[in-house]
Amino acid sequence: MSNEPTKIINRAKDRLKQGHDIRVFNVFELLKPSVIKIVRQSGYNMIKVDAEHMLHDPETLNTFLVMARDNELSPAVTIPTVSRPLVSTLLDAGAQGICLAHAETLDQVEELVKWMKYPPIGERALAPMTNAEYIIDDPLFHCENENKSTLLILKIESRKGVENAESLLSHEWVDAIIFGPGDLAADMGFHGQWEHDEVINAIQKVCNIALKKGKAVEPPSLATNRSEYISQSEAGYQIFGPHRGTEYDLLRKGAQESISYLLPENI
User: Fold this and answer.
1) How far apart are CA 94 and CA 134, in angstroms?
2) In this predicted structure, what is the pLDDT of residue 266?
3) How many structural domains compose the chain?
4) Would you say residue 265 has pLDDT above 90?
């Protein structure tokens, strides 16, 4: 038996810190073992569970997060608001990242850090749960390790979030930035127009700040082919994958493509 303290590894965060990209898969509803296996087999590094628009059974979510970790996927959870019961419990249940939807203010970020990080950085309470593999053999080592490995992601999806991007991205514990172009477009008066020039320009403004500050960020428009991916990767973007959509979108696309030869062209 090793005398070394148990070290928890967040593979997605390690990749980002090493300058590599991560591929993120977004799940709304299907918290099943098959999803974990297929996502891992398909080359993803992170699986992001939506808890902003979906209500999940706590036991099912806990099990799903454990499965993700055991299959070398870093699990993150998207939350609609910041509170101790929500943030700390999700981390103890196995989440290795918290993604704050509608991130807009520095106060939100500071409160998120408060419940994500152990003292002296924050006020997260210590417990030997899923996050610790059910053992804390060296509390100081564990707290320091967890503080470094948890991934804090901000989701910018409003004009206020864009306007405050400089201060949001200046916070030392912010690791990554993604976008909600649908809500941002609506907030800017362009409902459904995700690719409107003004929406893309607003996202690009945030991207420029993130790249300058060395924060991981996804490109304004997601790559659709190898050439676009290489160009975006060389430009410094590190977050890729269909995480702006849902498993429903991918299931529908695959289902439609599999019988496309049977359908009239106008369907």
Assistant:
1) 11
2) 54
3) 1
4) no
